[in-house]
Amino acid sequence: MKKHDKKPLGTIDKILIILGGFMGLFTIAMIVTFYIKDAVPDTLITCVMGCGGIEGILTAAITISKQITSSEKDNKDEQEDFK
Fold first, then answer.
1. Residue 35: phi, psi to the nearest 5?
2. pTM of the model
3. Are 40 and 34 in contact (CB under 8 A)?
4. Secondary element (H or E) of residue 4
5. Cβ atoms 26, 48 nearer than 8 A
């Protein structure tokens, strides 16, 4: 039986895992705050969730640009092979 070699997590994957964990803990903290105080800091929630969304969008943009750059590089290599 062969063991499959697992690919190590990349930096973007680690950032997204940390971001997801933070968002989960933050949500739980805000629920607890609501139960204790009967109110939540709306501005804080808006800012934190907005920053998390921006981080997600920027991560997606970085990933897409890397894929486009690598595919352009592959296309140039293929064109040089035919010359």
1. -65, -35
2. 0.73
3. yes
4. none
5. yes
